[in-house]
Amino acid sequence: MQLTAVIVFYQTKLAQALTLQTLKTSITPALRPFLSQIHFVLYDNSPQKQVPTDLDWLPDFDYHHDPRNLGLCPAYNLALKQAQQNNSHFLWLLDQDTALTTEFLEEVQQQLSANPAVQAIVPQIEAAGKLVSPRALTAPFKVVPLAAGQRQNALAINSAALVQVAFLRQIGGFNPEFPLDFLDNWLFYQIAQAGGKVLVLASVLQHQLSVMTTRNIKLPRYHSILAAEWHYYHQYQKIGEGRYRWHLLLRFASQLLLKRDWAKAKAVLKLLVGYRPV
């Protein structure tokens, strides 16, 4: 297969997921041969197993159910094994709520045919009306957008990214230290550390990014995000304790004074006064 794709689901009927719905409507007659060269791994983290229905238009897919809901990492690593078996050049990372477009698929097809010497190919991503990905890896806590073209030190979110299978094998697959949050930071940091390049496409996709509004994040998930962030900036992209604590102070003030969310402010305060996540 030219390409292996993985779509991760959670408590969503497969055929009703935005990603599959928009993929179906974006496939033109000219793109059908391209679709036929993609093996899809549908990885379902939902509590209940589903029977895939209304997916006859999808030429080649496997369904995997894992009620443990262990995040993205197990799904990505399983798909990576299948990508290696398929001799795929790239692994395409997808979630259930990214709106794909014909223009994006055409651009991916064109770039794959050109066989670019890059470690990742990513679209530009908008969420809540803001361009959030890709951005400069060298500017933590800021969104410094990167224009289309081959870029170094790029940080992109996982959604709709294509990652070179050979590079993923080189780094040992996806890191289980980051089962969900900051897995994308870790991945693109590895690309930057290896001197790799990221091809930023001209296509802009819309994505429903849950972390854009912390009010909608449940407290256990917020704790998970803070722990992953602390681990990433202390074990990988080390930015200095003073800089990190200033970031925490601003976040604490935002949660306490602007959002008036004492529970989340308290979670940040614990890190400020010395608590270290396990």
Automatic annotation (TrEMBL):
Presence of keyword Glycosyltransferase: yes
Keyword Magnesium: no
Top-rank taxon: Bacteria
The entry's keywords: Glycosyltransferase, Transferase
Domain called Glycosyltransferase 2-like: residue spans: 35-130
One family name in Pfam for this protein: Glycos_transf_2
Pathway named in the protein's UniProt entry: Cell wall biogenesis; cell wall polysaccharide biosynthesis
GO molecular function, one term: glycosyltransferase activity
Gene3D superfamilies in alphabetical order: Spore Coat Polysaccharide Biosynthesis Protein SpsA, Chain A
The family this protein is said to belong to: Belongs to the glycosyltransferase 2 family.
Protein name: Glycosyl transferase, group 2 family protein
